[in-house]
Amino acid sequence: MSIPHTKRVCQIIKLKPEHEAEYKAIHAAVWPGVLAALARHHIADYSIHYYPPLRLLVAHFKYTGADYDADMRGIAADPQTQRWWQLTDGMQESFVEGATGSGGAVPWWQELEEVFRFEGGTA
User: Fold this and answer.
1) What angle separates helix 79-89 from helix 68-77, to the nearest 10 degrees?
2) Among candidates 108, 110, 112, which has minimal Cα distance to 82?
3) pLDDT digit string (tens) for 75-115?
4) CB environment 57-71: b (16+ within 10 A), e (fewer)
């Protein structure tokens, strides 16, 4: 179901093969403070999928706020989220040239262009 006034975001990153089990385990119990920061900054319906043959993590979420860039800076400034990223960034390989980690000047996850959307209803 669509949430009114949303921006959909889809991002990808590679998972280092030696961290697959650990990455899945920590995401089975994401820290409450990290989830609270996402909610405070208007992130909804967030999921991450994994495609093992390419070691590809695919994240998808909806942004329901009015200032995406400000909310992304707010998430990046959250101390619990910063600690989470210190844990997870070492498990990942960015596709973005010049990226050094989450919350940096250069995005860590590669954002993808949306090329199709169907909201439902009659076609």
Assistant:
1) 80
2) 108
3) 999 999 999 999 999 999 999 999 999 999 999 999 999 99
4) bbbebbbbbeeeeeb
Q: What's at 7, amino acid-wise?
A: K
Q: Which residues of 95-117 are buried (b: 16+ CB within 10 A; e: fewer)?
A: ebeebeebbeeebbbeeeeeeee
Q: Model's pTM, two decimal places?
A: 0.90
Number of helices (H), then strands (E), in the chain: 4, 5
CA 3 to CA 46: how far, in whole Å? 13
Report which residue type is found at 80. Q
Tokens (6 digits) for 99: 């990226």
* Helix axes 20-27 and 79-89, enclosed angle (nearest 10): 160
Q: What is the DSSP letter of 52?
A: G
Rounded Cα gap, residues 82 and 75, in angstroms:
9
